[in-house]
Amino acid sequence: MADEIQKVITGLMPRLRRFGLALTGSLADADDLVQNACERALRRSGQLRDEGRVDAWIYHIMRNLWIDEVRSRRVRAHDTLDAASEVIGMDGAAAAEGHVTLGAVRRCLASLSPDHRAVLTLVCVDGLSYREAADVLEIPVGTVMSRLSRARLDLHALLAARPETASDKVLPMGPARGLSGIRRGQ
To answer: pLDDT class for 109, splitting at 50, 70, 90?
Structure first.
């Protein structure tokens, strides 16, 4: 069973890293959090209740580990989400404009509260349902919905406050729910 869980966790690594980054706001802390969560999950694989929901289980582990870390360290300087700018893309003007826009979104996302970053990442980037995000964050579905709504409004306001460039007209956010339709000035 541990081998099967290890294979599933390996496939989840990009999502785990994004969630870790959303929780911590720091690429270094996110990597440490992912490593600690994977280690704990593999050590305690017998505690997994639903083998079909390894993702929710490890998100839950990550969230709890981060809460423990925040409580233990109180104050520490963090890298910003800009440290995650290792985006691979095509050369050219479109790739450069997309990179600039993505950087702007990351900077704005970094200025949101940790609760808002976490819910945006889980629902809008990783595609979890409201129920799944609520289970991961251990909050009611209504709270997920209200935090998500507020986070989207705050993100939109932050992006709208930036000076507009040609690349800012439409945000390229991929298949994620909710953010791909945000347009400047609406």
So the answer is: confident
Nearest CA-CA partner of 35 in 52, 54, 10: 10
**Dist CA 151 CA 154 (whole Å):** 5
| ∠ Cα 83 19 95 (to 5°) | 50
User: Domain total for the chain?
Assistant: 2
d(CA 142, CA 121): 17
Instruction: State what percent of residues in the chain have pLDDT above 70.
Output: 70
Q: HEC profile for 40-57?
A: HHHHCHHHCCCHHHHHHH
Does 97 share its domain with 29?
Answer: no
Same domain assignment for residues 110 and 37:
no
The helix (H) or strand (E) run that includes residue 160 is: helix 141-160
Q: Which two tokens stand for residue 160?
A: 């709208």
